[in-house]
Design brief:
The complex is a heterodimer of chains A (about 300) and B (about 300). Chain A contains 13 helices and no strands. With about 300 residues, chain A is an all-alpha fold. Classes of the chains: A mainly alpha (about 300), B mainly alpha (about 300).
Chain lengths: ~300, ~300
């Protein structure tokens, strides 16, 4: 297992290097002279020249990228053009709020999605199954920002039960995490139902029932465990959707996280923060997928030993 | 299926299954799936409205009538008015053209480029396949929203840039799918037969490989179209896509945020429009997948 983990950890290095190169090259597509963008509209020729020297903008692209990577390894992602603070400080201030939101939403999606999928499969074609799958289809199709708006209107404005924006105590987390989690739970529920229906037809499930085991033991210990691999695959894919959802949800609920910082920074054309923010979120995504890989190894020894 | 001996315009006289039999099969299988037909009907209706809607719109979608602001639905304004007194129904009709147009253009561009890259990789194999697929894997490691945001950050806000951003983020999915399918057919007898009568690589890919890998690509296109509509409206909602006063469904929801507590209808109708269209596309996509997947079809 240690070898499996170290191999997967090593594979992160080229992935992150490749991602950083892609983001670096895309941001170099910015039309016009970046020195003008950095210096602002009223800058003098001398100020623009100084910026060129300070940011090594006259160097060839491979040299610029090399310098960026060396500095990034040292924890220096440059300076925000808006606040003049180090980018890394800006990002690390916002990261915990995004992780809190993402982790809570993930837990909701896991709990709601897996429970709904298992119940639907167990009572196939029942009213519960049909209702659950219609809701799941609507959940997949609903724009996440609109779901957020509807929940704000219902629980914040009409009922007045929950705060509608900002971060604070646990009550502030319910609406944004619920919005994000329910949207993701829809996909998990569909996949869990599908995987469970396959597994429930297997002989070992029939044998477990014939032995007289309680239905919940059959479902959880025998069926769900074997249906876990396709469900885990979908959970892994859901990390990407969750990260996209975090960006939108944070804007709807004025949640002070990384996604909102990136959106604000794009509006202010604060490229160092956009670059650092995108890379940090991509890093979280890659790490989350590593965890899924490790979970595969745990669930299926053939993957670990193959 | 009796497709293998048919001759079609796309296929050949060499026994390759063509695209028309696939299309006929899709039609027949869809006809048995009422939910998918309902999805197709809704998509078709909204598509037609997007084309002819501007001719039917009762009001100018941009001109402001501040005396009529935030009016609830009424016979004069079927869906009410927004915070600048603009008729929401007219804005939805005009907005359909932009939202659906951006989504369709992005999905189509991603499909063309992704399928070209994936088919070439799968057909030629070897070093080209290795290089292209490592690049695709790398792009897949970047969540699509982050990818699109980075492109918007670099290029700026505009409708063409929005299409480019969403399309670029979707190319890897099409490339992966078409590469896998092309790998499966490149050693087929009809490919060998085409090669033996002197057909060139590009002709074989266009006339023999592509028609025979089209089924999963059609399904993927439907699903990608719905994702692209969601992405376009999300980016416009964030203020990074279509800019005011142009009517676009996501941008209309963004405008609604400031007044939705006083006038919820301003936020409800554009959201319903997005939900209805995406839901219909997903119903159609699910139906197509069931119709085209022999495994799922045989279980029914």
């Amino acid at each position: 297992m240690a070898r499996f983990i170290s191999q997967r950890l090593l594979s992160l290095v080229p992935t992150m290097l490749g991602l950083s190169l892609i983001v670096f090259l895309i941001l170099k597509l910015t039309p016009g002279d970046p020195a003008f963008v950095l210096a602002g509209a009223n800058a003098t020729e001398e100020q623009i020249r100084n910026i060129r020297i300070a940011y090594h903008l006259d160097d060839p692209l491979p040299v610029q990228y090399g310098q960026y990577i060396v500095q990034a390894i040292r924890g220096d992602l440059g300076q925000s053009l808006r606040t003049r603070r180090p980018v890394i400080s800006e990002l690390l201030e916002r990261l915990p709020a995004s992780l809190e939101l993402g982790a809570t939403a993930f837990a909701i999606s896991l709990l709601v999605g897996v429970s709904a999928g298992v119940l639907s499969a167990e009572r196939q074609y029942s009213l519960w199954d049909n209702l659950g799958m219609v809701l799941a289809l609507v959940g997949i199709s609903v724009p996440i920002f609109w779901l957020g708006i509807l929940l704000i209107l219902l629980f914040g404005v009409q009922l007045g039960w929950l705060p509608t924006s900002g971060a604070g105590d646990w009550k502030h987390l319910i609406l944004p995490a619920g919005t994000l989690g329910l949207s993701s739970a829809a996909i998990v529920a569909r996949q869990t139902r599908s995987a469970m229906l396959e597994v429930l037809k297997q002989d070992y499930v029939r044998v477990a029932r014939a032995k007289g085991l309680a239905e919940h033991v059959v479902l959880v210990r025998h069926a769900l465990r074997n249906a876990a691999i396709p469900t885990v695959t979908v959970l892994g894919l859901q990390f990407g959707n969750l990260i996209g959802g975090v960006v939108v949800t944070e804007t709807v609920f004025a949640w002070p996280g990384l996604g909102r910082l990136i959106v604000e920074s794009i509006s202010f054309r604060d490229f160092p923060v956009v670059e650092g923010g995108v890379l940090l979120m991509a890093g979280v995504f890659v790490l989350a997928n590593l965890c899924i890989d490790l979970l595969y190894g745990y669930l299926n020894p053939r993957i670990r030993l193959g | 299926m009796a497709t293998s001996t048919r001759v079609s315009g796309w296929g050949s006289s060499l026994g390759a299954p063509g695209v028309f039999p696939v299309a006929t099969g899709i039609g027949r299988a869809l006809a048995r799936r009422q939910v998918a037909l309902l999805g197709a009907a809704i998509v078709g209706t909204i598509g037609v409205l997007a084309i002819v809607g501007p001719l039917m719109a009762p009001y100018d979608p941009i001109s402001q009538r501040l005396l009529d602001r935030l009016e609830p639905p009424s016979p004069a304004h079927w869906m009410g008015t927004d915070n600048l007194g603009r008729d929401i129904f007219s804005r939805l009709l005009f907005g359909a053209r932009i939202t659906l147009g951006v989504g369709f253009a992005a999905a189509a561009a991603a499909a063309v480029l992704g399928v070209a890259v994936g088919t070439a990789a799968g057909y030629y194999g070897g070093r080209l396949d290795n290089v292209l697929m490592r690049l695709v894997d790398l792009l897949l490691a970047l969540p699509s929203v982050l990818f699109a945001l980075t492109i918007i950050a670099a290029l700026g806000n505009s409708v063409p840039n929005l299409i480019v951003a969403i399309a670029c983020a979707a190319i890897p999915t099409f490339a992966r799918l078409s590469r896998g399918s092309a790998l499966g057919v490149r050693t087929a007898d009809y490919i060998e037969a085409a090669r033996s009568v002197g057909a060139g690589d590009s002709r074989i890919m266009a006339r023999h490989v592509l028609p025979n890998i089209s089924a999963p690509l059609i399904v993927q296109f439907t699903l990608q179209f719905s994702s692209a509509v969601l992405a376009a409206s999300a980016l416009s909602f964030l203020g990074l896509g279509v800019q005011p006063p142009t009517p676009e469904w996501g941008a209309m929801l963004s405008d609604a945020r400031t007044v939705m507590q006083m006038a919820p209808h301003v936020a409800i109708f554009p959201g319903c429009a997005i939900l209805l269209f995406v839901l219909a596309l997903n119903l159609l996509g699910d139906g197509l997948r069931d119709a085209l997947d022999p495994h799922l079809r045989s279980r029914r």
